[in-house]
Amino acid sequence: MTESRDSDEVALGPTGGPSWRTSKVAIVGAGAVGSTMAYATLMRGSARTVALYDINKAKVEAEALDLGHGIQFMPMAEVVGSNDIAVCADADVVVVTAGAKQKPGQTRIDLAEATISLIRKVLPPLVEVAPNAVYVLVTNPVDIVTYAALKISGLSSTQMFGSGTVLDSSRLRYLIAQHTGVAVQNVHAYIAGEHGDTELPLWSSASIGSVPLLEWNGIAGRGPLTSEVRDRIAREVVESAYRIIEGKGATNYAVGLAGSRIIEAVLKDEKRILPVSSLLHDYHGVSDVCLSVPAIVGARGVGDRLEVPMSADELAGLRRSAETLRAAARRFGL
User: N- to C-terminal Cα distance for the chain?
Assistant: First the structure.
């Protein structure tokens, strides 16, 4: 796979003249998440070609046509949509958003059986047409699905990973920014563990500007982040997806943006630190489970996992989260 595939990169063609080397993203699933992610990817100018694949021919072609009509107002790109998996051929990044739809009151784990069954069908032909792509799973329950996809595909734990808690960490930073009155871009905090009910905020390593979050005393009449405030924020991060699903049926805007950010980190070989879900090997004593920890994401996929210092409570929470996911994996015969 090419180390960097920016849309403005030029190489010499066979005749010695310039030949544009283009980046291609294939998005599997043209539902609310997939189509929004395609839109976000195009708006950000992340890739030169965006290919949508879905078994619903009319739906996927309509989504591609609608997006294509807006290309005049975006960075130049090509959009294609098809119910033929060949549309994903030679993609640099394949993002899998297809899966069972989460209903109000349903947990992410409840979705696992149906989504894993779908992954068993769609993944082998995807790997056949795009063997060198970096694969990103953005379908719930993402940690179990990523673990299953690794077993099914035989791809390496570098080449395939899940979106993990990238969105959860964004929600966490948003809520901290709301409480403290500072720009969300100046809040540095991660959610680790399961993308779900056992996820945990890494408070001990979080900061606001250069001030450790646990030492934040408040400004402009805004109070400090007491343990009660932190507990309320952590609960809201976990419950926010359920609240959105209850109100509008699906989460799509923020997850679409989060996915486009992961795509960019791969295509531009940014070496960006993102809390993606990947297969761990003796991370703080945790192994053989896919869950989220801050990791370096670049052209080859997910690289080194950062050994973030954790408090005793955080370590215990991470291990509880890992055991919850292991139990779920055993339940599905993985």
Answer: 30
